[in-house]
Amino acid sequence: MSEKFDIPFKSSFVPAVLEPGAKIKFNCHKGISCFNACCKHADIQLTPYDILRLKDNLGISVTDFLKNHTVPFEMDKDGLPGVKLRTDNEGACLFVNEEGCSVYKDRPTACRYYPIGHMAMREAGASDDEARYFLIQEDHCKGHEEGREISVDDYRQEQEVEAYDQINREWLQLMLKKKSAGPTIGRPSDTSLQFFFMCSYDTDRLRRFVLSDSFRASYDMDDAFYETMEKEDLALMQFGVRLLKQVLFGDVTIPVKENAAEKRVEERKEILEMRRKAEAELHQQKQEQQMKDAMS
Ligand code: SF4
Ligand code: SF4
């Protein structure tokens, strides 16, 4: 049974929550008259796990994937960075061809779910969030006219979204936390937004950061941790979410080295002192040279 739900009205949404057992009438297959129509007007937001799956499918680095296959956008009014799949000038996904989706086995979460929309909700006072589903009906999509009935749960299984949902869960919870904190948090600094982008999407840069001397000087992690971070993309991505939670939301789960902040201040002082001395020496050398020049 579905209940009424307060979704901002758009003609493509059926504004009613679907329970996991609710049935929808839908089927999509190669012989359908609208085959590929949805992918020719694609507006696909990517999750961190979508990026890993797609870059592996294409056999390229995260850096190249982000550069060549995505466009940045702002997820909210505070400028929280998101990424969408790049399209051609007509709005067609770069992965669609006559046969359908060329990255089908690694297609993004949003493509798997379509025409079911989903979002995480947390009731006032509840400690946990719950998934909510709703139906998206668009005129070009003829799948709704097919005879097949399928429950939301079975559709999710058929599209293999469960693994994606589980892996993205903590990251999605973070979005929810940010959203429910609302204006009390205020607009994050540019540095925080860049940090969010790195931890969420740019795992190549995150890896360089986690393996850097400054990270090692700040966090108390063992050798096995660094070995895993060096080799395993998924573990690195999941650590990125932990790091985000700790640095931006104060949810401390990563051990910090004692006096790390003080040591950093000391190191900074030493660097500044060395720079000051080098500048003083250079200044003295210049003065001596000027005197020599004047006397010659
Ligand atoms: S990734 Fe595949 S399914 Fe998703 S919009 Fe592109 S072509 Fe379509
Ligand atoms: S039925 Fe809908 S989802 Fe399937 S190809 Fe047609 S427009 Fe796309």
Automatic annotation (TrEMBL):
In which organism is this protein found? Candidatus Thiodiazotropha taylori
InterPro entries of this UniProt entry? Puta_zinc/iron-chelating_dom
Q: What is this protein called?
A: YkgJ family cysteine cluster protein
Instruction: Please give the superkingdom of this protein's source.
Output: Bacteria
Annotated region (Disordered), positions in chain: 276-296
